[in-house]
Amino acid sequence: MTPPNSQDVQTLFNDIAPIYDQMNDWLSFGIHRVWKLMTVKWSNPQPYNTALDLCCGTGDLTFLMAKQLVKGKVIGVDFSSQLLAKAQKKQPFKSLNSEIQWLEADVLSLPFDNNYFDCATMGYGLRNVTNISACLQEIQRVLKPNSKVAILDFHKPSDNWVANGQKWYLDKIVVTIADLLGTPSEYAYIYPSLERFPNGETQIQLGLNAGFSQGIHYPLFGGIMGVLVLTK
User: Fold this and answer.
1) What is the DSSP string of 103-160?
2) Out of 88, 143, 194, 217, which could bridge 200 as a Cys pair, Cβ 3.0 to 4.6 Å?
3) What share of the chain is helix, strand, coil (3-state, %, to 5)?
4) pLDDT in tens, 96-146
5) What whole-number distance in Å separates Cα of residue 61 and Cα of residue 151?
6) Which domains does the chain have, with CATH numbers?
């Protein structure tokens, strides 16, 4: 299957911005909050760090990271202006320990110096970039030596019965709900994106090829979800 181009993906996420948080709750039965906290912890944030949250969406991981840091700084990056606008509206209602900066930018061409960040996260972004290898190379470039990135995303499970159940749920439940909310085609893209997405072992190898020194992949929820942790 041919992946969508960058402009298509940007348009898609701008279109779904109004229902993005609701759909994350329905897609994961609300468990995404636990997965996101685990992801932040696996990135190994320290009190005064400068942290990066890529494909930050409406800011869930960004806010969690800002709570983990003490007088640190988190930069939330996304190329969807509509999702960033929602994140900024949510920020005044959060109890945070650190500064947050929101930035509209492309993860394939990050506007940061080499070796700039102490840790990084990405939620539901790697599956949607047009070039996974280039994305991982950019993350590796902007991280300091020995720093970690933790990357959370949906996966296609290796067990057929789980994969079939996932497909049924996405096709029959998620797309139906999205249809009621007026965005069926935007959520119909999810299963094809899972079909294209490399499995955990391949993701580790892509990370090593991108210059990371170590990688480990944690499958979650029967392999429906996973977190890739790479160390520079």
Assistant:
1) EE--TTS--S-TT-EEEEEEES-GGGSS-HHHHHHHHHHHEEEEEEEEEEEE---SSH
2) 217
3) 50, 20, 30
4) 889 999 999 999 999 999 999 999 999 989 988 999 999 999 999 999 999
5) 11
6) 6-231 (3.40.50.150)
